[in-house]
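call fold(seq) -> tokens
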Amino acid sequence: MPNDEHLVFDWEAAKTLPPQMPYLSLFTDDQGRSRLGMCTMDGFVPSVIGGKTDALWQRSLPTDVVGVKYLVMPVGWQGAWHESPAPQWVIPLSGRWFLESAAGERIEMGPGDLHWGQDLNTTDGRGHRSGQIGEEPCVLLMLQFASPQGSGACPL
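ret:
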């Protein structure tokens, strides 16, 4: 997977067609290894968020959020190999970071990219590793869920 691959949301198309939102998936494959996959989330429906606002495209996930965390990776930080602690969205707010799967795939992400982490129960417990890249700290928003969503490379 190329390091410069970037997830892009097409706001012009979203005005008339249900959006398809790209996201990176970190999952456990059939051999029990952590893998990376590029996916597209669909299933958006127009709905009013509240009050007298106009409808906008929405997509809900049927699960309970059990944790909301803000993480700051200092310049040069690199984590050890580990599985996702829970099914989770990780959204970079500023700076850049990378993910590397046990299969050797690596991708870099920045603000606007979406990452779904669900590499649970890998056969070797190795999972993935991640770290900060660039000249500024990386600030991440992490939303953790009670239970896995779907299965395979693109579970959502």
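The chain has one domain: 11-145.
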